[in-house]
Amino acid sequence: MKKALLLCLFLLTAGYLVGCSGVGNKSAGISVIYLITAIISFTVIPCYFLLIKKTDPWSVLLFSSVFIVNTGYYILSVSKTLSIALWANRISYLGSSLLPLAMLMIILKVADKEKPRWLPYLLFVVAGVVFFVAATPGFSDIYYKEVSLESYNGATVLDKEYGPWHVLYLFYLLGYTAITAIVAVHTAIKRKLSTDIQTFVLISSVFINIGIWLLEQFVKIDFELLSVSYVMSELFFLCLFIMLQEENKSTAIVTQYANEDTSDNAATGSENKDALMIYKKGVARLTPAETTIYRFYLEGKTTKEIMSILTITENTLKYHNKNIYSKLGVSSRKELREIAKLIKE
Predict the structure, then answer these.
(1) Of 21, 32, 56, 305, whose CB count within 10 A is highest?
(2) Are residues 162 and 16 in the same domain?
């Protein structure tokens, strides 16, 4: 948890510094800001492998996509010819096509949502089609009718007139934006995450991009603000992964505790043995949030202490209590502790 909080502090500091350099020191040039975001997004990748024990391919795809996007933005900003600029533009679109796919898959996994096996393959095909269309400038006029180079604030930008197929990418982003937002909000409402901090980090990682993207649709800005928001989002996700990893460690400890051999309890009646089996199986079925609360019960923490540590309301705790008692086959904390003691003996 401390690592996650330190990372959050780094996130805010990095976002502040990048933002300030773009607004308060325009002489530095837009290309410098793109370079900074590219370096930060590249650095996040080895940090992920160092900090997270059990890596996930969707997370690797997300972090790689952010790096690809920002690399494309940087190369475009320093391009001297239209040909190089268009290739840089294609690089950024490659990352932009894969990024929403990776983000959605991560949120579905965090929310423990079941999905058909064919869904990722279908989404990859759709992403491929969108990228193919977005990569046509220089070969066809279906995406950009006309495109030329311009210089702004020490950086190269594309002056383009959109073609008839540009709307495809717009609908692609709108679709992912809507679905991702719905899943994230549903995850928060259903309390799929154990603490309010985790929920806040998840919601922030999603809606920061939505807000920036909407801003760019209504305000003409010759700088891709998404390059900064993507970096902030991936840092939010890295924070969330660290929090969940710490929680999973606690889950493993509690499960091991509950599954210890009870063969020495020969005097235990058959009815009690059944209760112990239900209890042990129930512990294995607890969610990360429920496991955390269960561990606090074993430690003897009070309701107020648990609410304070997890920053949750009394209603939320009652909701988890109902699920914990149901899975363990108990009716009170006292009974919960007594059976846990029996298993330990």
Answers:
(1) 32
(2) yes
